[in-house]
């Protein structure tokens, strides 16, 4: 490491000091129990990755209605919180830090994964032109019901309760998932939100649900322990906005004013990266004043560049962290990386989950 290597210089994020800028992105792995209990394997999985500057957990549903795929974990029962506590204790025992990502899928769901075969809920009654993963494999999303005023209140109560349970579970903070076509983004983006009440129309109205979610989460967490994830390009799950520069500038400004722990932005969707969105991402960046996490297909060289230039404070890594539990050390030593195996990304057992090798000291010296 050189003195100039900012990837490995500690940084303050609110009241937490991150020892490095190599953070673990939220990663859906579909290995939880059908009832949303995190698996026993999740304890070593997260423990192995405790050297990340910060771990963001996989997306975790705040309620049974917030679920959209098989075998994703929840944070809506005391039993789930107790299991998560084993995970946070393991990470803390290794000297790590961990935030939980609070998730409600909205219309990206299917009646077969919802309680009593209910229809998904959303900002809209329009079905998503997207698929989700169920016991029968990939299927089209079910037709949603638009939340009414009572439904919105109920959903906000679910956010409040999940935030409380996240504290019981011993997390260091929470990330509110407002990206990738899920419920909060269904409110934010005008290609989806077709409401005529105070939650639709102007961007002020469309971001009301996000603000209210942050308010209820804020009943249990100080602002500097709450982060938000956005994907302004709207490339996932039938998202999209007619004027992302104008609308997301307002959203960034609102979040900036709340003095949150951080803003976490999916800047390009792996697989659909044609560089087109970079100008928008750069233009929006100026509207957020605070800790900024960049995400989306970064390698170590680009991470160094974006941090050194001051455009980002930290970078979150997904696939590299799946395959390399000791990713910061490997980056620091410029060591070879294990290749991730896409066949074991979603679902399965220990294979491709907790069996990726650490760099052994012999290799570390050799490299
Ligand atoms: C991959 C598969 C299923 C869900 C996201 C939570 O995109 C996800 C997700 C990713 O944010």
Characterization of the model:
- The protein is an alpha/beta fold.
- The chain is built from twelve helices and 14 strands.
- The strands form four sheets. It has an eight-stranded parallel β-sheet. A two-stranded antiparallel ribbon has the order 1-2. A two-stranded parallel ribbon has the order 6-9.
- α8 (278-285) links the parallel β12 (262-266) and β13 (292-295).
- The longest helix is centred in the middle third of the chain and has 20 residues, at 149-168.
- The mean pLDDT is 96.
- The structure holds 2-Phenylacrylic acid.
- The site of 2-Phenylacrylic acid (8OZ) has 5 residues, from loops.
Main sheet: strand order:
3-14-13-12-11-10-5-4
**Helix/strand order:** EEEHEHEEEEEHEHHHEHEHEHEHHH
> How helical, in percent, are the residues?
25-40%
Shape: globular
Tally of strands: 14
**CATH architecture assignment name:** Alpha-Beta Barrel
Range of strand content? 15-25%
**CATH topology title:** TIM Barrel
